[in-house]
Amino acid sequence: MCATCGCDQPGGVTITRINTEEGEFRPVSNHGLVTAHHHHHHGEQELSSEKRRIDLQQDILSKNDTQAGHNRHHFEAGHILAINLVSSPGSGKTSLLERTLTDLKDQYKSYVIEGDQQTLNDANRIAATGCEVVQINTGKGCHLDADMIHRSIHQLDPQDGSVVFIENVGNLVCPAMFDLGEQARVAIISVTEGDDKPLKYPDMFESSQLCIINKIDLLPYVNFSIDKAKEYALKVNPRLSFIELSATRGEGMDRWYEWLKKEYKAIGSRKEVAVGV
Amino acid sequence: MHELSIVMNIIDIATEQVQQAHARKVDSIELEIGTMAGVEMDALDFSWSAAVQNTVLSNAERVVDRVPAIARCGNCGLEFRVSEPFMPCPTCDNVLVEYLQGKELRVKSLVVS
Question: Whole-model pTM?
């Protein structure tokens, strides 16, 4: 059975390495992410039908959290900045990445892990910038998890001192619960959405460090109040920072790059802490 | 529907426990789910009925302890019951609060046979 969607069909989750040089993709695994198959052992060992109570107190997502911890350790040991980008579909995550990768080409060696239910469209857009990318297709799954990231890292093998952008599945609900081992989580909303989104989907804003408000070039045409959106977001997360920008026009992108630079520098100090423990 | 992933994780945990105990199945399972854990109980029910078929949990009784959210105000220190998500401190209206409980997402116990 597929661990992510519960289906009995093969191909629930796939990871595809995009070949940037030839501009084509070649699938590297079909059902590669499935680790949690359920094996039922019947009658091969002495089974007791006596009733027993097991006190467990085990966190349900402990497996994901443990794997996320391994990922984080791997990133920090390699001085790699990993950013988890989360948002609704259509907020402009991929456009933001395309521009970022192009503008910062000479400053950082970057890699992208793309998450979508279906298609290689986003990964192909990223590959067109020359950046190395893997596409995770989650099938029926609504979020990325730490194991998918672990496997993607093995595909990408990011070099020390690089930046890994993880574009999560467009969904403001489910990805909030799944730590991927990232150093920072960035929630993106666009002004074409409702400014009360932080109140409607609080978990995502609570678990993020930065909120990007995208498409500000469209502000004159929509009924979106930046002040209200910030006020609502600060209600669920008083520590949240904000950057307003337009990924298509370029306005505000410098502040996003400044933020990345600051996070990138912070990895060095985190690494020293990790080594010291 | 991350609730389906949650149910799949519960099935994994239960399967592991049944195997370790050399048992066949789970008779009952007790879960602890806080009211601020980000889990929709209707979605959990729906995912549960679909996912546990042909697993060790297929006939298990499921007991869910809903843990109410309690927060401590970062300003005045008041501990208060959180009646709506992300509510500020009822005395000083401060939004910087620390959740003491209500985010639990745990398998508390199992009865296997």
Answer: 0.84
ipTM of the predicted structure? 0.88
Query: What's A122-171 look like in SS3?
Result: HHHHHHCCCCEEEEEECCCCCCCCHHHHHHHHHHHCCCCCCEEEEECCCC
CB contact under 8 A, A56 and B88: no
Asked whether the beta carbons of B47 and B1 are under 8 A apart, the reply is: yes
- Give the chain B residue nearest A203 (alpha carbons): B38
Chain A positions touching B23 (Cβ under 8 A) are: 47-49, 52
B contacts of A57 (beta carbons < 8 Å): 106-109
Query: Is the CB of residue A93 less than 8 Å from the CB of residue A85?
Result: yes
Q: Average pLDDT of each block of 10 consecutive residues along chain A (277 residues)?
A: 41 78 47 41 60 93 95 96 96 96 96 93 93 92 93 95 96 92 97 94 94 98 97 93 98 98 85 44
